[in-house]
Amino acid sequence: MSGKDRMGVLPARYSFALNPHLHARFTTCPRCSIKTRVRKVPFVIHVDEAGLFVLRKTCRLCTDCDLVIVQQAEIEPLIAAFVDQTTAAKPTYLVLGTVDPRAWRRGLSAGATVDELIQCMADFKDHVRIEYTPGGWQRST
């Protein structure tokens, strides 16, 4: 990724995976099979209907791979509440990167402009797609 393809000023930090599977929580990393840790990370999210906002969310983190896994079923209701969307349609959004936790805390009390947010933002190194096949017997088709 070249410098002009990035939004944040800080160096790219994590690989990002949005987990669409409701019953797979990934207590071990899908890449390296190391135990993941639970962390609260402030994410920068762009919502088509509302613009940029920061959401601090509990997620799974593999410290060896630098892979952050966020549950889609947990993040979408929070985004819909931010947009104040009461319809059944899912909001259109993109998780862009992370913000320095100190900057997130400062933004809670004093607010922050988009320029200040970009100065404290780190883009993702990569967006990873998770494919999951549940164990057990399955019918051959």
List the helices and strands and how they pair.
Blueprint: E1 15-19, E2 37-47, E3 51-62, E4 67-71, H1 72-83, E5 93-99, H2 101-110, H3 114-119, E6 121-123, E7 126-128
Parallel strand pairs: 1-4, 1-7
Antiparallel strand pairs: 2-3, 2-5, 3-4, 5-6
Structure notes:
By secondary structure, the chain is α/β, with parallel strands linked by helices. The protein has one domain. The chain contains three helices and seven strands; from the N terminus they run ββββαβααββ. It has helices at 72-83, 101-110, 114-119, and strands at 15-19, 37-47, 51-62, 67-71, 93-99, 121-123, 126-128. A seven-stranded mixed β-sheet has the order 6-5-2-3-4-1-7. Strand 2 (37-47) and strand 3 (51-62) form a beta hairpin. The mean pLDDT is 88.
Keywords:
single chain, 141 residues, alpha/beta, 7-stranded mixed sheet, 7 strands, globular
Put the structure in a nutshell.
The protein is an alpha/beta fold and 141 residues long.
The amount of beta strand, in percent, is 25-35%
> Alpha-carbon distance between the termini?
41 Å
Query: How would the global form be characterised?
Result: globular
Q: Would you count the extended β strands for me?
A: 7
